[in-house]
Each structure stands twice: as C-alpha cells, then as structure tokens.
Fold each of these.
Amino acid sequence: MLTLHEGRGTTAAASIRTAVTVPIRFPDGYATVARVLTFEGLADGREHLLLAFGDAWTEDGAVDPGPSPLVRLHSECLTGDVFGSERCDCGPQLREAVEALEREGGLLLYLRQEGRGIGLYSKLDAYALQDAGLDTYEANLALGHDADERDYTCAAQMLAAVGVESVRLFTNNPDKSGQLRDLGIGVDAVIPTAVHLTPANARYLQAKRDRTGHHLDLPAA
Ligand SMILES: Nc1nc2c(ncn2[C@@H]2O[C@H](COP(=O)(O)OP(=O)(O)OP(=O)(O)O)[C@@H](O)[C@H]2O)c(=O)[nH]1
Ligand SMILES: [Zn+2]
C-alpha cells in the first residue's frame, strides 16, 4: 500500500465508502457509464468523487485501473462544468477528459475545489475584479486569497485507496503533477488537454500560460 509522504497532508489512508454505477449523458449526446466512488478519511473531509471509466472497472463493479492509468484531476467549476461558462475552459476539458478516459480506461477525480480552492462566491468576486482589469491570479490576491489554494493530498489518498501508485496525468497544469509526485504518486507521463479557446477566456488562458506555466499553445494575441 502506498505510504503518502509527510508534509503536504495526512499520511492516513482513506477508504472507499460507497461505489455506485451512474449512466452519464452530456448535452451534446455523448453517453457513457461510470463507477462512482465516495471515500472515508479524506484529509479535508470534503465530498470528492472518483469516477472510473471504460475498462478501469470490472463487471462486478470493482475499480481495477491497472498500472499507470490515465487520470484527470478536475477541480470543480460550477459555472464551467454545469452552465457551460465560456469564461474558462473547464466544461470542454471535462467533456474531453471523460471521452478519453472511456476510450483508454481511466479515472476522473472530481475535486471539490471550486475557484482554485477559494469557493464559488469568491470566484465570482474575482471575476468582477477581472472585469475591472486584474488577471485571474491578481484577482485572487486582491481578495486576500492565494493565487491557487488547491492541495491535492486528497487526490493522492483516493488514488492510493484504489491501489494506484503511478499515473499518466491529463493536464496542462504543472502544479498538479508536482504535487502528486511530492505526495508519493508516480507521474509517468503528462498528457496535455486540448486548448479550448473562446473570446471570453483568452486572457484567462494567457495568464495560466504566462504565470503558472500551463502547457497551452495559444495563437499570438
Ligand atoms: N479563483 C478563480 N478560479 C477560477 C477562475 N477560472 C477558473 N477557476 C477555477 O479554476 C479551477 C480550474 O481547474 P482545472 O480545470 O483543474 O484547471 P487547471 O488548474 O488550469 O488545470 P488543467 O485543466 O488540468 O490544465 C476550477 O476550480 C475553477 O473553478 C478564476 O478566474 N478565478
Ligand atoms: Zn472553470
């Protein structure tokens, strides 16, 4: 069993609380089915979810993703994931990730870290500051938050709970792979998501590329 590194968070193991099968259909008609797990003992006590797709789970419902599965750590974004907001790229990334995970057999960790960990209301306060000219990170700081308050200790606990010790990570965000490695989860490959550019999220994506080193191949401004 993986021993989580000291430092960022708990070394305590989390355990699976429930596992249920959920058929899924996106607004564009893409349909699939997921095995959805909840946990006991997560470091922050929040209701994070693990969804297994494709051959990452078996007929009898066991989640058995095999060595180095494709994994997406997706931070909750109500505006993007649910309402299709074009101010960010979360909604299309979620849709893209589910299709890739279904194809390859992999795990989506849906992390209750709305607003890069600052919460929904504060994210919308940050949007208002961005409308006044601040970038997505400056706005967090102006509100008295860190630029990014996310800690992925719970993600490492969830992966360990299903026996995963190393992953291929579907992300453009170098902090995600860095934190997982610090927590003792191997990252064998980083697979970038597509660039989901809209007129409303161009500044946001540029800020992620320029300030936090996101792997985003954007057209010249
Ligand atoms: N505070 C704040 N949070 C934002 C803003 N735009 C998006 N978010 C949040 O940022 C997070 C985006 O998470 P992810 O989809 O994992 O994006 P990411 O951290 O860029 O990493 P990858 O998508 O894996 O490349 C969600 O929690 C969103 O709610 C913003 O302008 N301000
Ligand atoms: Zn978003």
Amino acid sequence: MATVTRPRRSVLYMPGSNQRALEKARTLAADGLILDLEDAVSPDAKEVARTQVVEAVKAGGYGGRELLVRVNGLNTPWFHADVVAAATSGAHAILIPKVESADAVRQVDAIMTAAGAPDNMAIWCMMETPRGILRAEEIAGASPRMGGFVMGTSDLAKDLHCAHTALRLPMVTSLGLCLLAARAYGLAVLDGVYLDLADDSGFEASCVQGLELGFDGKTLIHPKTVDAANRVFAPSEREIEWSQKIIAAHAEAAAEGKGVVVVDGKLVENLHVENAKRIVKLAEQIAELSADLGK
Ligand SMILES: CC(C)(COP(=O)(O)OP(=O)(O)OC[C@H]1O[C@@H](n2cnc3c(N)ncnc32)[C@H](O)[C@@H]1OP(=O)(O)O)[C@@H](O)C(=O)NCCC(=O)NCCSC(=O)C[C@H](O)C(=O)O
Ligand SMILES: [Mg+2]
C-alpha cells in the first residue's frame, strides 16, 4: 500500500523571481508549492530568485502547505549555491530537475548534508528525460531522503518528439514506469502540468486521468486550477462512506474469525480494507489541512 503522509492534490509552481506570486501563494488553497529557481526564472534573475525564495520560506506564512524548492540542474552554474541555500531554508524538500541517475541524487544528498540540511528534508526528482524515466527505479531507491517524483511532461514530450494529446497515449509508458517505481519505494508521485490555461474542461479531464492512473495530485501553473485539482484528487463523500462501511464490516467479521465479508453484494477482503483505510486517512488529512489554511 502506498503511504499517505499528507495531501498533495494540487502543487503549484511559481517563479522564484516573482515576488507577488510568492506572496499570493500564502493565500491559495494549494496543498503544496514549488518555488522555482529553474525554468521559470531567466538567467539574469537567478540570484535574485534564490534570495527571494529563501527569504520567503524563512519568513513563513505558508501554513501546512508543503514547500519544495526547485533548484537549477547539476550541470548549471547555479546548482551548488541553490542547494546550499535551500538546504537550511526550512523548506520540506529540494526538487532536482532532469534527474538521470541515482548518482545525481546522491550528489545532492551529500551537498545538503554538508550544508546542514535537517535529516527530514526530502529530495524530490523531476522525471522528464528518457534516461531518467528508464532509470526510475534506481533513482527512487537512491537515498533515504527520497520523497517523491514530479512528472515533467513538457520536457519529456520535447525529448520524445511526441505530441501533447488529450488521452496522452504517447506519455503513458513513461507515466506508468514512474508510478511503478514510486509505489515500489513508497514515494509520492505527482502528474505533470496542463499548459492550456483557457481549457478548463481539458484540465479537469487530465486531472481525472491522473487520478485514475494513480497519481497523488497534479502540478499546476496557475491559481485558477487549484480548486479543480483539489476536488478531483480528494476522495468523494461516497468513497469515504463506503470505505468506513467496509472497514467496520470487515472488523466485525474478523472478530468472528472470518477473513472476508460481503457488503452490499460485494466481496470485501483485507486488501480492500487497506485501501479504504488509506482513503479515510487522506480525507482526514485534507480536512486538517483545510482547517489549517482556513479554506
Ligand atoms: C502563466 C503566468 C505567467 C500567468 O501570470 P499572470 O499573467 O500574472 O496571471 P494572472 O494575471 O491571471 O494572475 C492572477 C493572480 O494570480 C497570481 N498568480 C499567477 N500565477 C501564479 C502562480 N503560479 N503562483 C502564485 N500566484 C500566481 C498573480 O500574481 C495574480 O495575483 P494578483 O496580483 O493578486 O491579481 C503565471 O501563472 C506563472 O508564472 N505561472 C507559473 C509558470 C511556471 O512556474 N512555469 C514553470 C513550471 S512548469 C515546468 O517547468 C514543467 C516541467 O518542468 C516540465 O518539463 O513539464
Ligand atoms: Mg521541465
């Protein structure tokens, strides 16, 4: 069973160079934020973005939202200083772009540790190159700090020479390999961004597909998409009620020495109960986070 440690239905990117966005994020109902130093920031704004992001995280005000700092890639002039600065910022995780090997993760781990990062600060990896996808398993298991994968479907589509289609068939193999590796190693895994901000129904359909594939949530580029992602990736009332019902029925059956029970004509075994417990726990965590954010 995949471990649920916190809700990650909606995780919003913002350019670290955009002070207004860093401020605005304190008021948004996103479960998590990616404070970006990489692709959303132009080369001449890299240092300013790094300073602003570290100051914003240290200043706080983000409540229970999960904070990830996306640093520049290993082969860039900004990488080392980004990791050192993020390591003691108080963010929950460093997100490394374009990861292609376990060694890259271990390099970041070593820099973080030397810079004084707390033991519970995680490493997340952008999965967005063909080599990275093919090595998803070794990357997932590269360090005890590994916390999750974020699908970088824009970079990946560029490298695969594939099209962005509604059903994402050209992307399904890559998404599936990363989901397998993430679940095998107990990591979180977030779906890629939807680029057409004018297409609300297309966005929602891509969230539904991401949920059905097994993603924990969706990465977003604009606040207007937060509510739809939160809605789609949250368990419905019906699912919660059904989960509670089968947990109770199975516990009653277990007390009578039975391993299975039939509820409303459906066979319920321990595996269904495990999944039901995950759903109930996720619903509780969403309620706690919503109360914390006042949303
Ligand atoms: C796309 C945007 C440039 C649009 O910005 P803007 O024109 O300012 O939008 P609005 O006027 O509609 O904004 C309304 C208010 O919302 C705030 N806002 C907008 N976007 C964000 C955000 N991302 N985070 C926080 N707040 C945001 C505005 O400040 C307005 O607030 P107010 O002042 O109160 O009116 C912009 O949305 C944007 O920059 N988005 C993020 C782009 C980004 O980070 N891209 C990189 C990540 S995606 C990626 O890299 C994919 C991956 O690597 C891959 O390969 O797939
Ligand atoms: Mg990318």
